[in-house]
């Protein structure tokens, strides 16, 4: 009798075997990730517990900053030299990173919103992640350093992103702008688009949503099937804490519940087969398609949330694919 015959319906083997269908580097990263203990999330009322959780990733050593920057952007290390400067717009903090080879007449700019569960990735990490993203995508990048938990639940982070987007529109044409984000940053990217549309602002030329938590009610299938990759209890505490006094199905909290139309920008969405946010990504992709939006979905074999921490060929391939999509959209917007 096979294992599949002895398991109850819907049960998964434990541990899940590491697939041989991915690169050796990706296999090694999955094995290493299995050894990392999963920290349970405090309840929303336990603010000091959240502060202690944040402190785990607050080490400003180069190794920690690099690791957190990679995993909160799904980027990779390149040899591109990049100049970075801090800026503020309406009290919102961000960084502007410019690759050294940027042409003086290149008006393109990428607004990138880092991930980190609305909790991690600020300060020195945001500085480094903006630098990494600019090197990966070869374009001037505005990287958000938005307010986060435990001090600033929704809508503080989205307010910051809106303030910077408004500033961006005063310096660049909408058709020269692309917006992308990873994980919580992808949630904020989609929410930013919905809110910008609702407030009558012009929308950018293209959008990249890398593993978006689009439905914080966690009703998608892979919250269950891929739940072995997240802390016990899932993301319930984080979702409740982030939403503050708002309902979890508010469109700016869970963009899957927003209304989309064919005038939304071309969008690329990516996730992995081990990503607990695969369902959110798939469902948002279908919603965009039904609205008549040009939307591409790319799912990576064996990849967990955050891909392979920037250390596998699959990470580089994903970056290259998203970059090609954005460049094609910029070219199309310039021809229009």
What's the structural domain tally?
Answer: 1
CATH homology superfamily: Alpha/Beta hydrolase fold, catalytic domain
Which oligomeric state applies?
A: single chain
Number of helices: 11
Distance between the termini: 62 Å
Portion of residues in beta strands equals: 5-15%
From the alpha-carbon coordinates, what is the Rg to the nearest angstrom? 19 Å
Mean pLDDT, all residues: 93
At CATH level 2, the architecture is 3-Layer(aba) Sandwich
Shape: globular
DSSP E strands, number: 8
Main sheet summary:
8 strands, mixed
Query: Are there runs of 5+ residues with pLDDT below 50, and where?
Result: 1-9
CATH class: Alpha Beta
Percent of residues in helices: 25-40%
Key attributes of the depicted protein:
8 strands, Rossmann fold
Characterization of this structure:
With 336 residues, the chain is of the alpha/beta class. The chain has one domain (23-335): Alpha/Beta hydrolase fold, catalytic domain (Rossmann fold), CATH 3.40.50. It has 11 helices and 8 strands. The chain has an 8-stranded mixed beta sheet with strand order 1-2-4-3-5-6-7-8, sandwiched between helices. α7 (184-198) links the parallel β5 (177-182) and β6. α4 packs across α5. The chain is globular and about 55 Å long. It starts with a helix and ends with a helix.
């Amino acid at each position: 009798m096979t294992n599949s015959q002895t398991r109850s319906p819907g049960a998964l083997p434990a541990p899940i075997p590491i697939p041989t269908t991915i690169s050796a580097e990706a296999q090694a990263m999955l094995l290493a990730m299995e050894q990392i203990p999963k920290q349970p999330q405090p309840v929303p009322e336990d603010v000091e517990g959240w502060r202690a959780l944040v402190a785990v990733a607050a080490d400003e050593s180069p190794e920690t900053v690099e690791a957190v920057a990679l995993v909160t952007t799904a980027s990779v290390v390149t040899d591109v030299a990049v100049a970075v400067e801090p800026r503020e717009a309406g009290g919102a903090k961000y960084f502007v990173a410019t690759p050294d080879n940027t042409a003086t007449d290149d008006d393109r700019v990428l607004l990138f919103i880092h991930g980190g569960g609305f909790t991690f990735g600020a300060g020195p990490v945001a500085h480094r992640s903006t630098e990494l993203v600019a090197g990966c995508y070869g374009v001037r990048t505005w990287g958000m350093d938005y307010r986060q938990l435990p001090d600033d639940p929704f809508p503080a982070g989205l307010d910051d992103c809106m303030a910077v987007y408004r500033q961006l529109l005063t310096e660049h044409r909408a058709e020269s702008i692309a917006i992308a984000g990873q994980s919580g940053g992808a949630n904020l990217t989609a929410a930013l688009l919905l809110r910008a549309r609702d407030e009558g602002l012009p929308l950018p030329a293209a959008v990249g949503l890398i593993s978006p938590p689009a439905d914080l009610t966690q009703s998608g299938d892979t919250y269950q099937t891929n739940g072995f990759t997240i802390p016990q209890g899932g993301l319930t505490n984080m979702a409740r804490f982030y939403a503050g006094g708002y309902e979890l199905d508010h469109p700016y909290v869970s963009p899957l519940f927003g209304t989309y139309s064919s005038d939304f920008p071309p969008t690329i969405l990516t996730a992995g087969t081990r990503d607990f946010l695969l369902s959110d990504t798939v469902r948002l992709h279908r919603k965009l398609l039904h609205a008549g939006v040009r939307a591409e979905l790319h799912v990576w074999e064996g990849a967990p949330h955050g891909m392979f921490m920037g250390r596998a060929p699959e990470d580089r391939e994903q970056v290259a694919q998203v970059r090609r999509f954005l460049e094609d959209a910029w070219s199309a917007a310039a021809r229009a």
